[in-house]
Specification:
The complex is a heterodimer. Chain A is of the alpha/beta class. Helix content of chain A is 39%, strand content 20%. In chain B, helix 1 packs antiparallel against helix 2 and helix 4 packs across helix 5. Chain B is extended, with a radius of gyration of 26 Å. The chains are: A alpha/beta, B alpha+beta. At the A-B interface, helix 1 of A face helix 2 and helix 3 of B.
Chain lengths: 256, 302
């Protein structure tokens, strides 16, 4: 049974969510502010399987909570809920490290489906890492020692430049390093690699990866690209793989 | 997004200041160079000052516009939140009732929650609409002769019911000093909205225990006053002059707990000023409570 943490300061919404999630068979804890949420998550990192996080919270807001969580090396799935439904806010949430996002008011069925999806993907990734003998909670996000992936094949692995991306485990292995990726970083990399050699527009990326259809400040995606470059480029300022195509978008190139 | 906007403010303010400095330098240079040539000197003295004044005014105007638009953005965010949160809650409970087995007592509890949320929604909508109406100076008041003491008393009763408070939590007192009752020529609807807004704030910004005192007084034959005093979080002195502005919400972290649109006190001020009265706030500082005073001209004085 999965245990969830709901961080929501609107009491009515929090109670309603708790009622429904408990009816679905989850164990649920509630907290009304960001600081307490961080304390709970840091005190017992393995207690919770996922977090449902509101953005407008007293004290630390949802964006701060999720980015602090990621800095702390915790990669449990975070679903953000917010009344601020503009695309910039959505992207800011993803940028901070959220895995999924729902604007308020939301449909109960969709919330439950998204949560199930997050938990499923997370447990796959966890199972995969445990099978590799890496303890998921002790692996630091960047710079940890790692077993270089041995002879493993399958469509969920992609290698280039001596780097290996394990899409299932949300990990990037380089010489002597394992970098943990968030779900959305992985999805973006997967998308770019699938369209290898082709130029993809920012708009297409927003629509296909995040499902955003409104008019969006497409530049917001550039932050993601900058972060990915830090992971995969030798010199992030002079990218050789992840290229910017001026006025259009981005292109992943995999050539010698 | 926000960083770039802040950057552009700094850029334009610096730009304006540089232009002013340049114009002043040119002016001084002009005077030094041309002090012998009377015509040129006079021309310079006539044309440079307007340029300098124009630049200064332009910069001030720009900064004020930017501030205003920031407040407006904050207001849009706050109203979005205030409208969407109760809708999200009502919808969640309706879906719950529709799809799940719910016991009778729970069902009743859910109905109460939905009612409370629809009240909250209605309140936000009314606040926004009222701000539009009272903010419009051309719109006339529907004046009638009314007893301010009675009206305030009704507002106090309403607030007690709405926040489920005892008579001790909001105490109401009338003191007329031997003078007659505070009869005024006013628009009862608008004044009720103003007083209710003050009471709402007093309760909302009370820290833990609500202890609000409301007094209606007639200090002299010309004025009737309403005083609303709370022992809540107080107002720092540098914020007091801003709080009656439209959309203004104090940028303090404690206030994140209290939701609002930034319209309440703006409505209070607009209503009171339309009645020819005044409103002011005082507070000994953060955590020291606040006092709001409304002064309205009495009917006999008009």
């Amino acid at each position: 049974m999965s245990t969830l943490l709901i961080v929501e300061d609107e009491k009515h919404l929090a109670d309603g969510l708790r009622f429904n999630l408990e009816a679905e068979g989850y164990k649920v804890d509630l907290t009304a502010d960001g600081e307490t949420a961080l304390d709970l998550l840091k005190a017992e990192p393995r207690r919770y399987d996922a977090v449902v996080l509101d953005v407008m919270l007293p004290g630390k807001d949802g964006f701060e909570v999720v980015s602090e969580l990621r800095r702390d090396g915790q990669f449990l799935p975070v679903l953000m809920l917010t009344a601020r439904g503009r695309s910039e806010d959505v992207l800011r949430g993803f940028e901070a490290g959220a895995d999924d996002y729902l604007p308020k008011p939301f449909e109960l069925e969709i919330l439950l489906a998204r949560l199930r999806g997050l938990l499923r993907r997370h447990s796959w990734a966890q199972g995969r890492r445990e099978a590799l003998g890496v303890n998921p909670q002790t692996t630091p996000p960047v710079g940890g020692q790692s077993t270089t992936p041995s002879e493993r094949h399958g469509e969920d692995i992609f290698s280039f430049d001596g780097k290996t991306i394990d899409f299932g485990a949300l990990e990037l292995h380089t010489a002597g390093q394992t970098i943990r990726l968030t779900l959305m970083e992985t999805e973006l990399l997967r998308y770019l690699i699938r369209h290898e050699g082709k130029v993809v527009s920012r708009k297409a990326m927003l629509e296909d990866i995040w499902g955003l259809r409104e008019d969006t400040d497409t530049r917001a995606i550039d932050n993601f690209i900058a972060r990915l470059r830090k992971y995969i480029e030798e010199e992030p300022s002079k990218p050789r793989r992840l290229l910017t195509v001026r006025g259009v978008g981005y292109q992943f190139r995999n050539m010698k | 997004m926000r960083i770039s906007r802040r950057g552009s403010i700094i850029f334009f303010v610096t730009f304006g200041a540089c232009l002013v400095a340049l114009a002043v330098a040119l002016n001084v240079g002009w005077i030094l160079l041309n002090w012998r040539e009377v015509t040129l000197l006079i021309l310079g003295l006539i044309f440079f000052p307007p340029i300098i004044v124009g630049l200064i005014l332009n910069t001030i105007f720009l900064v004020r516009e930017i501030r205003q638009s920031e407040r407006h953005q904050g207001f849009i965010n706050a109203v979005t939140h205030e409208l969407k949160t109760p809708i999200a809650s009502i919808r969640l409970y309706l879906e719950t009732l529709k799809t799940r087995e719910v016991s009778d007592s729970q069902r009743r509890e859910f109905y109460d929650i939905m009612l409370a949320d629809s009240d909250r929604l209605l309140q936000t909508v009314e606040q926004v609409l009222r701000a539009g109406v009272t903010g419009d100076r051309r719109r006339p008041l529907h004046r009638s002769t009314m007893d301010l003491g009675k009206t305030v008393g009704e507002c106090v009763d309403l607030a007690r019911t709405r926040f489920h408070l005892s008579a001790d939590a909001i105490r109401f007192r009338e003191s007329f000093n031997g003078v007659d009752r505070p009869v005024i020529e006013g628009d009862p609807d608008e004044l009720r909205a103003a007083v209710s807004n003050l009471l709402d704030n007093a309760v909302k910004y009370s820290d833990k225990e609500v202890a609000v005192e409301v007094e209606v007084e007639t200090p002299d034959p010309r004025w009737a006053t309403v005083i609303v005093r709370d022992h809540g979080i107080g107002i720092p002195s540098k914020e007091i002059k801003h709080i009656f502005k439209r959309f203004y919400r104090a940028p303090r972290r404690v206030l994140m707990r209290v939701k609002g649109t930034g319209l309440g006190l703006f409505i209070v001020r607009s209503v009171v000023e339309k009645h020819g009265g005044r409103v002011f706030a005082s507070s000994a500082g953060e955590g020291e409570g606040s006092t709001f005073t409304i002064q309205l001209p009495r009917a006999a004085a008009q």
